[in-house]
Amino acid sequence: MTQERYAMLCGLGAVGLWSTVATAFKVALGEMSPLELMWIAALVSWALMGVLVWRKGLMRQALGRGWRTALWAGMMNPVAYYLVLFAAYDRLPGQEAMALNYTWALAMAFLAVPILGQRLTRIDIIAGLIAYAGVWTIATRGAVLDVAFADPLGVGLALASTLLWALYWLLNARDSRPPLVAQWQNFSVGLPVFTLLIALGSGFEWYGWKGVGAGIYVGLFEMGIAFVLWQLAVRGISRTAKVANLIFLSPPISLLLLHLVIGEPILISTLVGLMLILGGLGLQQWQKAAEPAPQA
């Protein structure tokens, strides 16, 4: 098997796993609070990443340096990002939260202007207008001329999660830590925070294997194995755009699973809004693919 083919298979594996997590989120949140779900998922992901860091001989480095970066990075991801994201999933239908969350790439393009000093192209602006027209369609559930959102707080939380995710990656652009080490250190910071929040609240209750199993699944696959597979895909492919385009396979699969497993009726407004969001993202990807390669 060629390295290119192996990288594409890793990318498909990651996208396949990400396609299932919206359903896992809704299953778990039907049984427990966002904070309890995050604690279980963070514990599982932290343990998995710790084993991988140790197996790769990186534990000495992970324990020795990088903690100053991990302190603020861990508070952004996993703490702030996932708590806000799970709160959005707790309020909105899974299909709406999932679709709105896909605008993070556009949020990154806009935030890169003040943070990294990059400039917006005409294509960036057009792509943003198309995608956020999709956001408006989903938020109003098709009543696009009506300013009253079906759940303004839920929509606000979903969009806030995209800003947090985009900010996290932009601020980490100069992070020199190996990805596995960074992920483990960030969760080493986040896990005690989740534990403290639960201890100060109502404490953790046993909700049965359905909810706990979904939480374990989220930690193992959404935050763990999918992350590793995606890193292998990005590092092994000749052109990042090839593997990045695989992400467009995820939303339709997610919608189908939410319908079949959770029983969510697929709303016309979600389909239209998602097509607009993916259209905007596709336009942005096309622009990147059309850029001339740098000369040696």
UniProtKB/TrEMBL annotation:
Which controlled-vocabulary keywords does the entry list?
Membrane, Transmembrane, Transmembrane helix
Q: Does the keyword Transmembrane helix apply?
A: yes
Checking InterPro entries in the record gives: EamA_dom, EmrE-like
Looking at the UniProt entry, the stretches that span the membrane are: 34-54, 66-87, 99-117, 129-149, 155-172, 184-204, 216-234, 243-260, 266-283
Using the record's annotation, list all stretches that form the EamA domain: 7-139, 153-282
Q: Which SUPFAM superfamilies match?
A: Multidrug resistance efflux transporter EmrE (SSF103481)
Q: Name one GO cellular component term.
A: membrane
* Entry keyword Transport: no
Protein name, as recorded:
EamA-like transporter family protein
